[in-house]
Amino acid sequence: MINQKNESIRKKKKVIFRRTLLLFLFFFAIITASVLTIYQADEILDIGEQKTQAENIVTVKLENIQTEMSHVTTDLMILSLNSQLLKFWDDTTNTEIMTSISQEFLTTAIYRKIYDQVRLINDDGQELIRINYNNGYPAAVAKHNLQNKKDRYYFQDAIKLNKNEIFASQLDLNIEHGQIEQPLKPMIRIATPVFDKKGKKRGIVLFNYFGENIINMLIHKDSLAKNQLMLLNSDGYWLKGPSPDLEWGFMYKDHKDITFDKYYPNVWEIIKNNEASQFETDLGLFTFKTIYPLLNKQKYPATENFTLKTKDASLKKAYAWKLVYYIPAAVLYSKHKEYRQQAGIIITILFIVMLIFATRYAKIEYHKLHAEISLKKSEANLKEAVAAKDKFFSILAHDLKAPFNSMLAFSTILNEQFDKYDSEKQKKFIGMIYTSIQNTYKLLESILLWSRSQRGTIDFKPKKINLFLLTNETYELLQHSAENKSITLTKRIPENIFIEADKDMLSTTLRNLLSNAIKFTPKNGKISVTAHLIKDANNIPFVEVIVKDSGIGISQEVQAELFDISTQTITEGTDNESGTGFGLILCKEFVEKHGGKIWLKSEVGKGSDFTFTIPLKSDITTI
Question: CATH code at 20?
């Protein structure tokens, strides 16, 4: 008695625990999902703010560079169109005019403070005026120190230009006496031709612009952005990089391989082939825009009527920079760890509160629902058991009655009137009894097999099977039945198609479908079996097998009941062949056991197609 009581208490505690767990999980899942949703929204908002900030930084820096280059071209045009310069070409010996022009050039260098040199060069390449910046102390170079620059590329390219055309070199490092000047001096040479009053080209005005001004624009006050704002040339070399060691690789023979592409290969492909974009990779967030410093598509108020020319063949490629703002993934998601820690604390507190609440609630609800659950469960089990019993005995009684009646009738005749019949007649009666016994045995065997499948006592042993060979074996078993009705059996199955299945179950399925096809196909009919590989909506591979016959077909009403045990229908074949009514039911059981499906397509008088699928395991090679 005590043991029974303890067992009852133990079961009650177990039920309380389950109910508590379910209630807890339900409410905890809802609240946890809400908390996580809020924090996920914060994370998304944080990422969105960083993306917006990145776009704003890139846009502002791009505008700053464009504005700076606009001022440079404006200065160049002002000096090239100087009225004193026009007078000078009429009298190149006039020292007063020369002094005035030199002073104008000097004034530009003094107040702008962005030009290393400002020069006037005649059409023979001879320097007429050269203003050197001299580390903040601009001065004109004495006449006897002026040089001829006719062999320099910038003169040769600039002197070829027409009116209103501007030459610009690449942004690179200044070279003195064949060596890169130290400390490094980034430089752009910008020039335009000058003409006399008659429109004759007389020389060029040339600026050596301090490229460091552009580099300095990219130094951002935000510490996070300090090493993330980069400037690349059209070949992917850093002009301004995360560290000085990576910059100006194209200027050094042993640094030619130091490119953005080497460190970020997939990223560079996107940046190189697009004007502007913002995208995220495993490395982090990249925001970039393309700068055409002097290209007339980016208009400047004072220079929109001028055209950029470079010594490179491709204008767009030669003078395009990529302004890139890079936020590493660790920085991009740095706040997410903080958010998740906060969410973890809140969820832990909620966990404890909800666990207490769920425990108390479960204890109250247990006594109220326990009786109802037990009653419903008992009622359902009883109904299911009664229905199964009634169904089984109804089928069994119905299907056994006919063959037993037949056997009783013929055996009675033989028992009472054996001597009245000749041996031929006796053999006929005995053959009928034998056939009836065979059919009854098949029925009992099918019922037993179905019963075992319902109880789950049939061993399911899938293994690698050659479908072609298995179909051959089935054909050999049924060949005689087909030949008796002059039915042609064909198959279209690749010889090397393999599946993983229980051989007995699959053989039974094929045998039942082919037996039915033979049974309901008239003489001289045709039956075929085909198989091929398919994939379902989830891209899972299956083998689809189709058994097609030219038989009498099946009505829509009968089709709806073929796989239902509770509405079992037995129909004689075209030669009065008998059946058990369990064949298709077993086929359905076995196919579904493999995780497949079975269905049919049929019209009365036009034959039937029975199709079933078997999953193809990933380690099985087929076709």
Answer: 3.30.450.20
Q: Which domain holds residue 194?
A: 1-332
HEC per residue, 224-284: HHCCCEEEECCCCCEEECCCHHHECHHHCHHHCCCCHHHHCHHHHHHHHCCCEEEEEECCE
Burial 417-429 (b: 16+ CB within 10 A, else e): eeeeeeeeeeeeb
Structural domain ending residue among the three candidates 284, 317, 332 = 332
Strands 179-180 and 175-176: antiparallel
Structural contact between residues 44 and 280, judged by C-beta atoms closer than 8 angstroms: no
Rg, the chain, Cα only = 47
Tokens of 592: 């579904």
Look at residues 332, 348, 376 and tell me which one is the last residue of a structural domain: 332
The CATH number linked to 586 is: 3.30.565.10
Report the half-sphere exposure of 17 (CA within 13 A, side-chain side).
6
Which phi and psi angles does 202 have, rounded to 5°?
-120, -10
* ∠ Cα 8 9 10 (to 5°): 90
Q: Is it the case that residue 183 has pLDDT exceeding 80? A: yes
CA dist 495 → 323, 468, 488 (Å): 61, 5, 20
What pTM value is reported for the model? 0.52
219 by DSSP, 3-state: which?
Answer: coil
pLDDT in tens, 85-115: 989 999 988 999 999 999 999 999 999 999 9
